[in-house]
């Protein structure tokens, strides 16, 4: 039986280098990730942190870094008590040139059967990645509210 995972594929009219920068720059993530900033030097074995409003919401370790092709890090949630007890998961970004586009595949796996974390990220990633695509292609955000990150998840 396969383990639970989240996979999202989108095509973005940009270059792999610009997309890599968007995924690894706090200045950029703050724009499309609803104010969240990524923190790391992006070297394998280095720490990773996602901060929102000055609070570390998720942390982990860089597992793979091959600019501008592939990035992976472990991802342990800290903000919501209901999710803190679940084990660290893994996020993998694969960037593939596709003519004038980049095919971005996001794999988030390592969830426990019956856990709540898969549901939470299944709502969050589409909102985040839609904002990313719009920002890179048009320079504008879609106006998705931050509450979309928690849609279907009763975070207290």
UniProtKB/TrEMBL annotation:
SUPFAM superfamilies in alphabetical order: Bet v1-like
CDD domains given in the database record: SRPBCC_CalC_Aha1-like_GntR-HTH
Domain Activator of Hsp90 ATPase homologue 1/2-like C-terminal: 14-137
Pfam families tied to this protein: AHSA1
Source species, domain of life: Bacteria
Coiled-coil parts of chain: none
Family assignment from sequence similarity: Belongs to the AHA1 family.
Name recorded for this polypeptide: SRPBCC family protein
Species this protein is from: Bradyrhizobium agreste
């Amino acid at each position: 039986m396969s383990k639970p995972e989240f996979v999202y594929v989108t095509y973005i009219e940009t270059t792999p280098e610009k997309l890599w920068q968007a995924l690894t720059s706090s200045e950029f993530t703050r724009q499309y990730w609803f104010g969240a900033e990524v923190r790391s030097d992006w070297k394998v074995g280095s720490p990773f942190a996602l901060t929102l409003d000055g609070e570390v919401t998720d942390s982990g370790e860089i597992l793979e870094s091959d600019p501008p092709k592939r990035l992976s890090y472990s991802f342990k949630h800290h903000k919501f008590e209901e999710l803190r007890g679940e084990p660290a998961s893994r996020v993998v970004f694969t960037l593939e040139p596709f003519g004038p586009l980049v095919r971005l595949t996001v794999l988030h796996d390592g969830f426990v059967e019956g856990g709540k974390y898969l549901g939470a990220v299944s709502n969050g990633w589409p909102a985040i990645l839609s904002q990313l695509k719009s920002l890179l292609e048009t320079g504008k955000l879609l106006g998705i509210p931050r509450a979309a990150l928690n849609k279907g998840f009763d975070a207290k």
